[in-house]
């Protein structure tokens, strides 16, 4: 009964989805691309037998790239089908395509759309990345004999409570999966409570990402000797930038009144550069406007020619350049962790050797955050104001900062190997080993 009701709601919501796509498409044209695929209508022909990899958004698509590389190393002839849910995910996914591969939107989770998707592409096996499990999709794959796995799987306590509230719907979906490969033992236990049959704990695929060496080199080149240190707000979220700017305004005012005398009392335009890199590209303009409205001069990455231009605030308004930004920075504040949003991925910062200061909310990457802290690669604070103080203290203590940078690289290196394990398990599931 609950499943039938869910399917009726999903079908009835399709006009709302179309309106939402049109609205988002005004700011992100990628949402207007191949709209009918969202409803299970695909053009052309598709060669059956590909391994299907679903990566809903930008972060998951980058993880898909790590998995795809491992699959191709083990099986050079493998063909892949990439599906996505967001415009940034799909744009990133085009970079992963090789001869014989395909790309499409994953359809809205109605029985008819899901059936058309599976009939059109006829994948050999499928894998969902991290968290996204759709009831009709999971059960349709089980009926058709398409083994569907959840890889790099994680489930926070908050998400588990949500799944348990909807257990009549979520438990059958989890139970329909052919395999679940968890990131950590804690994730595995929560997934079991949600109804999944966990096949193994394979680690976090993100540790196997190699920072782009050209970006690391470029970032280092843009940091000449004696240049001011840089504090980066990495993957910041709504509300966090405004709070940081408020704190910087207050610090600037104290300096102007002569109240700030300690070595760590820096201000924009002084001995420190502030780099804001918003998590979502549709907010680049908004964050730049916030900084300007707060009275700071602003320089955006998209306007740089020979390197960063002098300004109080730098805005990292580009995609796929996080390694460059980390190489440019001395310390990173972890976005999403200063509001109850769960935090962003700190593994990339560690791989680039950038010390991290994180807030109290890291439930999306709980074990990675705790382990990084234990390795000395990151420090945890209770508020953004305290994070600012701690970052500035690190700038005033180069030896401590260097120790954290070394610890970060060692932490990232020590946890590699999940991509090989996951790729091998997926090929076995697909009958290609």
UniProtKB/TrEMBL annotation:
Family the entry assigns: Belongs to the glycosyltransferase group 1 family.
Major site of localization recorded for this protein: other
Active site: 60 (proton acceptor)
Name by which UniProt lists this protein: 3-deoxy-D-manno-octulosonic acid transferase
Keyword Ribonucleoprotein part of the UniProt annotation: no
Major enzyme class: transferase
GO BP: lipid A biosynthetic process; lipopolysaccharide core region biosynthetic process
Reactions it catalyzes: lipid IVA (E. coli) + CMP-3-deoxy-beta-D-manno-octulosonate = alpha-Kdo-(2->6)-lipid IVA (E. coli) + CMP + H(+)
Domain Glycosyl transferase family: 320-410
Species whose genome carries this gene: Ramlibacter aurantiacus
Annotated site, Transition state stabilizer, chain positions: 130, 206
A GO molecular-function annotation: Kdo transferase activity
